[in-house]
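Re: [help] complex structure
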Amino acid sequence: MAAILTVLFNGVAYGFLLFVMSVGLSVSLGMMNFVNLAQASFSMLGGYIFVTALQGYGIPFMLCLPIVFFAVAIVSVVLERLIFRYFYKTDDLTQVLLTIGLVFMSIAMATYVWGGTYQRFDMPAWIIGQKDVFGLTLETYRIFLVGFGAVMAVTLIFGLERTNLGAMVRACVDNRRVATACGLNTELIFAFTFAIGGGLAGLGGALSANLLGLDPNFPLRYLVYILIVVSIGGMGTITGTLVASLALGIADVMGKYYVPQFGSFIIYLLTVIVMLWRPHGLMGRGA
Amino acid sequence: MSATEAASQAAAPHEAGRDYFASLARWKVWEILFWATLAGCYFFPDIDRMLMSRVIIWGLFAMSLDVLLGYRGIPSLGHAVFFGVGAYVAGFLGKFGWTEPISGLFFAMFVAGALGLVMGKLVQRVTGVGLLMVTLGLNLIVFDFVLRSTELTGGDDGLQGIVIAPVLNYFRFDIWGRTAFWYAFVVAFVLFVVTRMLLKSPFGLALIGARENPRRMLTLGAPVEGDVSRAFMIAAALAGAAGALLTQTTQTAAPTYLSFQRSADVLVILIIGGAGRLYGGFIGAIVFILLQDYVSALSPVYWYFWIGLLLVIIVSFFRKGLLPSVEQLYDRLRSRKSAGPPG
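Output below.
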């Protein structure tokens, strides 16, 4: 019983990581119908900035996280203004090709700057090791991840439901043309949300560096997971993304723990079934 | 009003239609030049014939995706599945005693085509991002399966011990790629001619119609969904042929043949060349494979930087690919000439 709960807990921790990485893509898809595969590169960039700040400059762990968030947010909004905004009106395939081109370039650039091998770094002492919680022995870092992810999720959902800005964002997701007609500056709102989404992706990359390993192929390895989360959860819904990432995290960790011979087979199969059953995702609205 | 008169009146639109398709199917000078040049590459003194046969195979593979993407407008992120299935079927045949290449090629096409038909039936109602995800998911499933069933496929090491008999019992596959070149060339050319015929027929026109406006095609009574699975079948069989060609000319089959990377590569090739032109795949393959050979000899690690940059430039400035852009330029030059003062 304790073993099952521990595996479940690890799955939840992994699910929150996926949530933080993919929520930005979900919102940009829902709002502008923009398929941004470069989201995975933002995560990688976040990871590298984190490692450089932590290891290279000796900045404390808790200070590294906001640095990563703002750095990647700035990079993503610069890219949005320079490149992405010219592609909002093009079809899905053009967007996929543009952003996968950027992913390829980012991989080569990361190899150039940080080298092709896995990054080695030391996490602060207070976050490694294990703790006993309700009779379960859990890794401290995963406890931190679950807490952090939960706070993020609650903040985002409440921010979207309860604040003025959230209402504007929801208006843009629901119907951008009408929102524009009502006098909302949709371009500005989108640039802002894009920055937050990018920053969160970077944060996800930073938090996962320790757990998933960081090398230049990171974007290609986790791109598939991000896409699965977004398409299963449905575009533009934060709750859907949260549910999908938790489900995927649990399914993946449990599958690899109990039936390792199947590997990732189970989640791919589930994805295909869900997409055939509900092409707009579990919580997405049909077009 | 005699019966024959009525009959000829009824036949008149039919006649016109036949003329239309005949004019569509007529070979143009540049098409003949293209194939002649490709064949002529063989006689170039220092040419790497193995590399050229790889170009032809990738061209055929990209053309198979063109049937789906260019003509029917269906983007597939999992096209390498069919390539890989064709490659492994040809490999298994060679490993277990059926070494005759041409029948092996046909069998590989048949299996890949059958798989394509099933996949087409699965996805014929799905569109947009859902379609991208389903094709991607199916690709990952098959890749995972091949990688994991080590006893069957050799896993990461690929299929070992493939034997391929000489083509027509005479032309042996050698290390200089002489047979490989001609075998790949002839197969690609024959399949190209067949595909060209199919696409310049009412079937091809119906595909383009459904790409442009599926709802209107439905009201015209065209079997839009059925055409999707048929297009999938044709594209899959062609991709299977490309995979089988690669296995037979190199006597290897590896899991990378059906990796997602390969699906992305073939999409990139087609986009570089230009979709919906039949030749786009071949043009893209020439650019991509030769560039890959050149750049990765200089710095293998940074090859993907350049291909990514190429992709970004192409979608930004030549949104339709190289071939249509050249065509546009040619048309503009010609219209300027004809618009000029006479004489």
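Strands of chain A lie at 130-133, 136-139.
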